[in-house]
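Below is a filled-in request sheet from our internal design queue. Each sheet records the structural input a requester submitted and the sequence that came back. We keep these sheets so that new team members can see what a complete request looks like end to end.

REQUESTER: design group, bay 2
PRIORITY: normal
MODE: inverse folding
CHAIN LENGTH: 447
BACKBONE (tokenized):
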């Protein structure tokens, strides 16, 4: 097993000299085999090795397994971290299944003990890959789900991914290495266990004795095709993201692509730009359906609102109860209002260049005598734009400026109890202009 392990590490460039490797050590056969394999390889390729264990506080044996991992690391001089976190409590707090709760808790502890360049080594193996593909298939996955787990990606490496469970157990038995047996692996209330203990044996007996090999062939074929589609979608994705980064809109140019490419671009956008983790068929189809609806129609999912615009889809984060519709304006500091950064500075008249821009405006510093706040619009607001005689309804100003409805609630207004002094990022008002008598200037800029 060791020679195969090292061959895969070299082939896929999983570990380089000087790397910091953090093993997720449960004490079970897979992680213990990985521990011994990397411990031996450390003598051939100089890298640091640390281990972290999460006690899920789910079983009586959990504390014994934690102590086993601690003693194993201490005996071999490997840095060891452990934490206890109740999987049951976390699942109730977050409305997750026990499996999902355990997965999230492990991610949290891995991140806690990771350095910026740490590689997290996990003991997933070939049989885990088969189970994952079947789980994805039964859930109704797209083509990407049939590629299963990657051997390398996002600071995670899986050196045992091409090893079968039998190879791992044979290795441990041959070396007389001790490991823990987790009885919960036989609890078929967990979906993965039910697939492992019931579905796969049933498929082997009733349909195909070589079902595991067949699934792995499917994974290899699908991975090659997926990599090809990723390559040919790179340029259209880059072009669309240039528009998105500038406007916040996923342009309807997306619909000009081949349907297979459309879907791939959309998924990548959801992952990379919106950082969503639960990407499912319903979400993807709902967004595509939204492209075909009237302007201002919307769809909410996972704390976001997707809004149809004249030329694509705009996304805004749903407000939480903690977000304020009004906050004090603090000059000289960065003010954050609904995820919009507003900075300001006091300039001498000599530093003032006399040019207002859309995102940068200037006032006589005497404005600071007012009790200034940043707030959202209110019904009945009026505003006197700079250079205009008289006032107008703020609603009419937004219409004249062609500011979409879905953006208006998030635009910060610089105001006091009676007057709106600026629509930040769009126009300053007429009060407190910079004149020949001005000695100091207040500069306000929306970033």
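RETURNED SEQUENCE:
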């Amino acid at each position: 097993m060791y020679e195969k392990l090292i061959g895969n590490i070299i082939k896929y460039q999983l570990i380089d000299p000087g790397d910091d490797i953090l093993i997720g050590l449960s004490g079970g056969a897979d992680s213990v085999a990985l521990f011994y394999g990397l411990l031996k390889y450390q003598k051939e390729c100089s890298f640091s090795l640390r281990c972290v264990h999460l006690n899920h506080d789910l079983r009586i044996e959990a504390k014994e397994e934690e102590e086993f991992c601690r003693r194993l690391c201490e005996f071999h001089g490997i840095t060891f971290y452990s934490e206890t976190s109740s999987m049951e409590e976390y699942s109730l707090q977050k409305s997750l299944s026990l499996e999902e709760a355990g997965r999230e808790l492990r991610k949290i502890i891995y991140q806690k003990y990771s350095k910026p360049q740490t590689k997290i080594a996990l003991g997933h193996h070939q049989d885990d890959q088969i189970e994952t593909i079947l789980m994805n298939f039964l859930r109704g996955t797209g083509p990407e789900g049939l590629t299963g787990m990657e051997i390398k990606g996002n600071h995670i490496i899986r050196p045992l991914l091409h090893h079968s469970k039998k190879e791992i157990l044979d290795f441990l038995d041959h070396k007389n290495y001790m490991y823990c047996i987790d009885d919960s692996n036989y609890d078929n209330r967990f979906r993965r266990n039910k697939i492992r203990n019931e579905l796969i044996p049933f498929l082997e007996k009733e349909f195909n004795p070589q079902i595991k090999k067949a699934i792995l062939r499917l994974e290899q074929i699908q991975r090659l095709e997926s990599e090809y589609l990723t390559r040919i979608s790179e340029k259209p994705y880059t072009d669309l993201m240039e528009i998105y980064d500038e406007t916040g809109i996923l342009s309807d140019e997306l619909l000009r692509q081949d349907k297979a490419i459309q879907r791939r671009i959309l998924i990548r956008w959801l992952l990379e730009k919106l950082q969503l983790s639960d990407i499912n068929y319903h979400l993807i189809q709902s967004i595509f359906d939204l492209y075909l609806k009237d302007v201002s129609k919307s769809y909410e999912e996972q704390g976001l609102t997707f809004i149809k615009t004249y030329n694509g889809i705009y996304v805004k984060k749903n407000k939480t109860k903690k977000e304020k519709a009004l906050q004090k304006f603090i000059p000289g500091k960065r003010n954050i209002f609904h995820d919009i950064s507003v900075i300001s500075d006091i300039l001498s008249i000599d530093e003032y260049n006399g040019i207002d821009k859309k995102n940068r405006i200037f006032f006589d510093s005497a404005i600071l005598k007012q009790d200034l706040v940043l707030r959202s619009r209110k019904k009945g607001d009026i505003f006197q734009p700079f250079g205009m005689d008289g006032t107008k309804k703020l609603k009419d100003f937004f219409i004249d400026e062609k500011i979409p409805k879905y953006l208006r609630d998030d635009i910060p207004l610089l105001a006091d109890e009676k007057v709106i002094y600026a629509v930040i990022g769009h126009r300053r008002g007429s009060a407190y202009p910079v004149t020949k008598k001005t000695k100091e200037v207040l500069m306000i800029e929306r970033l």
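SHEET NOTES:
- The first strand starts at residue 20 and ends at 24.
- The chain has a mean pLDDT of 90.
FILED BY: M.R.
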